[in-house]
Amino acid sequence: MKKTFSSTILLLTLLFIVSCKEDKNHELTEKEYKLPTLKEAFKSKFTIGTALNSHQIYGHDSLATQLIKREFNTVTPENVMKSVNIHPGVNTYNFDAADKYVQFGQDNDMFIVGHTLVWHSQLSNFFNEIEEKDSLKLALKKHVVTVAGRYAGKINGWDVVNEALNEDGSLRNSLFLNKLGDNYLVDAFNWAKQAAPQTELYYNDYNLCVPSKREGAIKLIKFLQENNCQVDGIGMQGHWGLETPTLEEIEKSIIAYSELGIKVMITELDITVLPNPWDLEGADVNQNFEQDPKMNPYPNGIPDSVVTKFNKRYKDIFELFLKHQDKIGRVTFWGVQDGDSWLNNWPIEGRTNYPLLFDRDYKQKPAYKEVIQVAAKN
Description:
The protein is α/β, with parallel strands linked by helices. It is built from 14 helices and 8 strands. It has an 8-stranded parallel β-barrel, surrounded by 5 helices. The chain is globular and about 60 Å long.
């Protein structure tokens, strides 16, 4: 009798463990994710997107796949199309992940964004080894034409040039500017148009709400337009905080860029709740700082006071977006759920951040409901 009782306890324990594991990987149900979804709520306003990491692209995160299909109608690749990954050697291309990304977008009838053709960071090493100007120009052209050309008619919009400005609005002193001059910007857009003539072409950058950088971006877009480049839109990266940038500066920026006759996209949207080093500038991925417990204050969850600020921040931002919905073409979050966010490891590794609308268990956060309610009222 004692043996039977022990066996029963063991069996119940095993069943409990198995059920817990199954619960973690269960399908998302209608009860958990009540309609409307984000893409439905903003259907008549602008598209709503997210960035996909390699695990999601390869189908290794089934819960994320369900959520992405359910909530979003446009996607952007987080890293797989950056040159260091897609074009690691002079004559070596790795298209597998990019192909799967594009196929995912096509299979789910999504607006597919390519990110990015020309960027000084996460750049293939061989570019830095090219000494001659003409050789560098030829190599860059080959990269743009080959990658953009492969996905012509499949990718709907390209971030052609990414983060070419300094914080004061001047052109970044990159490898391309140093050796090719500012005409590399014109060439990049013209090569992209040549390779993918039916694709929308964008300039994408962070801190575009800062007055000095905003003026630099306006100057850059006008420079491209004066040189007869096709520029369909500008991507305002939304790597923002609980208080900055101000809503006033965001609004000024949306209006200013729209007046150039181009679409405004809010790209890479996430709201950090953590403190950052005082000398941090924007979203430059090359900046890293040492760990400090004071910089990771919420390893086990954020307090109610911060949740309240977070919810209001998203609510206020989306109210502003809807006020200018005639100018905005797309809003894209940089990640699916909090655990995916690059902000857990930038600018300090190993932190716990909470910047998105879905938590680490793929559940809607209160801010999600705030955003949906904003859409319902407008």
